[in-house]
Amino acid sequence: MVPFTPVFARVVLTAGLVASAAFQASALASAPVPPRSHGHAVKKDAAPETEARASGATGERSVAPDGAPLLGTMVQTHTGEHLLLTSSSPAQPRFESLLQDRVTGQAHAFDPRLLGLLRTLASQHPGARIELVSGFRSPKLNEMMRKKGHHVASHSQHSLGHAVDFRIVPAGETKGMDPRALEKEIRALGWDGGVGTYTLASDWFVHADVGKNRRWRG
Fold it and tell me: How much is the pTM?
């Protein structure tokens, strides 16, 4: 078995990004991802063979219905929607629909590096459940969260499609892994964007974005 060194990790991450980028060209053609400078409604157009219909589907299969090795399952925490995660699915537009604004139902183009990061992390935790806590935030949702006392930026990376909040629940476990440990894994992969960790019982997740390299604790 090849040792999982930082150099090997970067190779794995690069492979994940290439696979993700192949699916995002059409989605970003009319709305290109801005250069680095510093979902209540659910779409029903997904191919049935890529969706996890039953809880526990991740732990029971090693190969997805399309024949690709199963990495894990992505779960939208606000809607309960499940999607199988492989090296080729979901496609970028389907991933973006999973992360649409949970108040307005609006979808937004996402930087493909985020899906690549999730794939790479899933490959390190076979059969895990990736719980998506927050994706795209419309100005309406962002302001609503600010008024409720949440620590969100007025010009959030979430509103640009540049960030995702998530936790990873290892196979057989009921609680997500420690966000601080997950941050270390993300940085070991060579991630050069922002990473925030939230460790309250009510906010147990990691924020990853493609903005400037920075870190914080929530």
Answer: 0.70
Closest CA to 161 of 24, 51, 42, 44: 24
Q: What are phi and psi of 208, to 5 degrees?
A: -130, 135
Chain mean pLDDT for the chain: 78
| Residue 16 buriedness (CB in 10 A; 0-12 / 13-18 / 19+) | buried
Residue 145's CB: how many other CB atoms inside 10 A? 17
DSSP states along 56-75: THHHH-SB-TTSSBEEEEEE
Long-range contacts of range 189-196, CB-CB < 8 Å, 24 or more positions apart? 189/9, 189/10, 189/12, 189/13, 189/117, 189/120, 189/121, 190/6, 190/9, 190/10, 190/13, 191/13, 191/117, 193/36, 193/113, 194/157, 194/163
Q: Would you tell me how many other CB atoms lie within 10 Å of the CB of residue 35? A: 5
Q: Which of 63-77, 78-92, 135-149, 154-168 has the lowest mean pLDDT?
A: 135-149
pLDDT in tens, 163-205: 999 999 999 999 999 999 999 999 999 999 999 999 999 899 9
